[in-house]
Amino acid sequence: MRFTTDDHARVAAAIAQAEANTSGEIFCVVARQVSSYRDVSLGWAAAAALLAPLGLIPLGFNGDWLAFGGGWEIAHAPAASAGIGRALAAYALVQAGVFLAVFLLSLIPVVRRLLTPAALRRTRVRRAAMQQFLAHGLHVTEARTGVLIFAALADHQVEVVADQGIHSCVNPEVWADAVAALTAALRRDRPVEGFEKAVALCGQVLAERFPPKPADENEIPDKLVVI
User: What is the mean pLDDT of residues 100-123?
Assistant: First the structure.
């Protein structure tokens, strides 16, 4: 998803319009990906490599399946040892193949999203949102009235983070309409429209509780950041 100069200008204008009626500060960030979830891919691959080959044992799996056997055997005792060695080698080879196949499959974005627990995705998106909230200084506004609207594209999730001054006065559920508006727009591949609506809705909430002050300064730049 590409954001043009005009897209950035539209979001900035929406923020400026919303902040005209409030002393609060609104900031927008969109992240293409908050985590590679490589640990999840490795976990699934390791689990599959450990468990999947066990299903072959009842079928009489041994080294002969992979052309490790089938030749003449010298004697009973050595043959038994050789058979065990072939079976172990074949088992290890199957494990390696399963591990690689599952790992590569899990790198496909749609598959990775399905394999990643929803709770883990929510946690990492929320953590990324908090990192952006702090990185852009929304926690150091004079009245602690900063609001971050954060969208994680690969995870299909939206977070609204409000600073302490707002959180103590406003029920977190009031941001649900803004989250829903942005989420619906992202599904239609119209992120800028979604940010405009979300910003307007957040502005309405802020205007009710935090009206503009005399000589109010714009403490946070009005813009959309893409990471």
Answer: 92
